[in-house]
Amino acid sequence: MTALSVRFIVCLAMFNMTSVRSGRVLLTLYAIKLGGDPMAIGMLAASFSVIPVCFSWIGGRWSDRFGARWLLFIGVGGSAGGMILPFFMPSMSAIFMAGVLSGLSMTFCNVSLQNLVGQLSSPNNRAQNFSNYTLAGSISSFIGPMIAGFAIDHVGYHFSCLIVLLLAIIPLSMITIHGAQLPRGTGKSQSGSSLLKMFSTPGVWGVLLASCIAQIANDIFQFYMPVYANDAGLSPSAIGVVLAMYSASSFIARFVLPRLITKFGEQKVLACAFIVAGLAFLIVPLIQKAFFLATISFLIGIGMGCTSPITMMLMHASSPEGRSGEAMGLRLTADNLTRLFGPVLFGMMAGAIGLASVFWLNAVMLGSGGLFARPSNAPDHKKIE
After folding, report:
1. Which residue in 251, 294, 352, 354 has the fewest CB atoms around it within 10 Å?
2. From CA 79, how far away is CA 100, in angstroms rounded?
3. Helix, strand, or coil here: 71?
């Protein structure tokens, strides 16, 4: 398994995520154009996550058993096919169906691609490869919405569906041409491969908790930092700068992460990342100036930018032999459940006892996650390798 193989997976992930994320922005704006009310838009956003919640774990099991090739083809093809529906039937029902198919794509593609990164990596380059994978996600998050926005402005909502479809042809072609070279599955179910046995594997619970805490923190920032900044009297452009600092620092953190892991180890870096982000969240309700909020946003991004690649690495390393795809799918299931319910629960808390409580409770959770991620609580990954 060569480094070129991992670069192929990272490029495939970037092109696919760019297509999916541009499609999601297009579907959301198209729904608004068709008269969708806030409740309908919220249901559309939920449709992006329903399939991942239901099928990430089973998708991981299929990846272990059958290999990634056909799951990737079905995932990318399903998302591309979904964009045809609103082109021929510009209606809310077609948009909802496309949203569900987009969720199907991310379910099968994410779990398969993350598992492939782990499979094609050695212990020496795994940190670099997972960091590159998450960098590809950051790039696609930047490019995808821009493509959707410019396409809508220049050719309208209707033909923008075809542009997103054309974007999906790139990863489809890559899978068609090179898919046979991807690792094959075991061809059979693992003996004794129950979900309870997966949970009982040393290290799995800790990684799941760390991943969920990180997901909650990311969602809290994305949903409630703009609300807090608006209440503090910041202009829309200033709020945009505050949010952009988070994305910029996350990118920087992922760029330097392999060197940090080489020097300090995964668990120490993860613990420090949680603690840095937690301290920054703790300070948020105490300041209202744009410059200082942007600085705090930068610190939160530094911490949170490290969490996703490290939890991917630790979950792959903690997985039982032959069940790495299932383990990665379990992590994605936990993350998507958190994404569905976390913001709602924190929103209820904000309404009941104030917005500041959301940031402070999240700071406590991150601090606890930092203590939990200490090296003494981690499994022996060298033995697992």
Report:
1. 352
2. 9
3. helix
pTM above 0.85, yes or no: no
**Would the pLDDT of 139 be above 90?**
no
CA 377 to chain centre: 25
Q: Residue 382 is inside which H or E element, if any? A: helix 381-384
Same-domain check for residues 132 and 9:
yes
In a domain, 183, yes or no: no
Are 234 and 124 in the same domain? Answer: no
Mean pLDDT of 59-85: 82
pLDDT tens readout for residues 219-241: 888 778 888 888 888 887 788 78
Co-location of 133 and 267 in the same domain: no
d(CA 157, CA 141): 20
What CATH number did the domain enclosing 289 receive? Answer: 1.20.1250.20
Cα distances from 349 to residues 270, 342, 356, in angstroms, run 27, 11, 10
- Domain end (from 178, 204, 233): 178
What is the secondary structure of 293-336 as a DSSP string? HHHHHHHHHHHHHHHHHHHHHHHHHHSPTT-HHHHHHHHHHHHH
Domain that holds residue 257: 195-380
Query: Is the CA virtual torsion 222, 225, 229, 230 positive or negative?
Result: positive
The pLDDT value recorded for residue 311 is 86
- Looking at the domain assignment, is residue 187 inside a domain? no
CB 83 within 8 Å of CB 161: yes
pLDDT digits (tens, 9 = 90+) for 240-254: 788 888 888 888 888
51 located within any domain = yes
In this structure, which long-range contacts are made by residues 348-355, counting pairs with CB atoms below 8 Å and at least 24 apart in sequence?
350/224, 355/224, 355/227, 355/228, 355/231, 355/285
Number of domains into which the chain is organized: 2
Alpha helices in 89-125 (DSSP H): 92-119
Rounded to the nearest 10 degrees, the angle between the axes of helix 92-119 and helix 324-353 is: 130
- Considering the domain architecture, whether residues 148 and 205 belong to the same structural domain is answered as no
Q: DSSP string covering 213-278, please? A: HHHHHHHHHHHHHHHHHHHTT--HHHHHHHHHHHHHHHHHHHHHHHHHHHHH-HHHHHHHHHHHHH
Q: Are residues 124 and 166 in the same domain?
A: yes
DSSP 8-state assignment for residue 188? S
Asked if residue 349 and residue 202 are part of one domain, the reply reads: yes
* Residue 156 shares a structural domain with residue 238: no
